[in-house]
What does this fold into?
Amino acid sequence: MNQSITMKILQLALVFCFMVSFQTTFAQDLNDTMAYRITTKDGNVYTGTVIKREPGKILLKTANIGEITLAVSDISEIQAIDPTKFRKGGYWFENPQATRYLWTSNGYGFKKGEGYYQNVWVLFNQVAYGITDNISIGGGVLLLFFFGGTSTPVWITPKVSIPIARDKVNLGVGALVGTVIGEDESGFGILYGITTFGSKDRNISIGLGWG
It folds into this structure.
């Protein structure tokens, strides 16, 4: 047999073995006693418990549509669900604004890769992103030039979050440093430390800043 054909057959066999191994491991890692939130590649989301696992397939029992079979190759994401998130018959998703209040920050931080973009009345724009599970960076701009050439404030907001007691006490240290474009000697900033007591959904914070 031609050597190049033999190599191609060997490569295909290795890829097939890897896929079967990946799918089997993927299914076996699931716990029958836990609930999962499964997102498929076409954007559908299913929540339920795994009642049967086979190579390449998962049988999921849901509360709304009963039992469904999902192909592992069609799944884009599987998330284990915290039982404490079920309240009054519904599931409470993660609070997307858990790291701050209306304007000010608190002691919680983003997970790596999380972030947000905020816009208020077109003029106020702010973004933030989690570099690691404990370090985030953000920035913003106030578009005052819409008012006939008025100077424009811009700022950055680095922050370090340190969990002292998981979901109970979090310490945050950060800064807001900025300037006003179009004005001389217009730098401003504040360095702060803040301690947050409580969970991400319900808490109170005490902080101190120097500006």
User: Anything to note?
Assistant: Residues 115-210 form one domain. Helices lie at 3-28. Residues 3-28 form the longest helix (26 residues). The chain is about 10% helix and 50% strand.
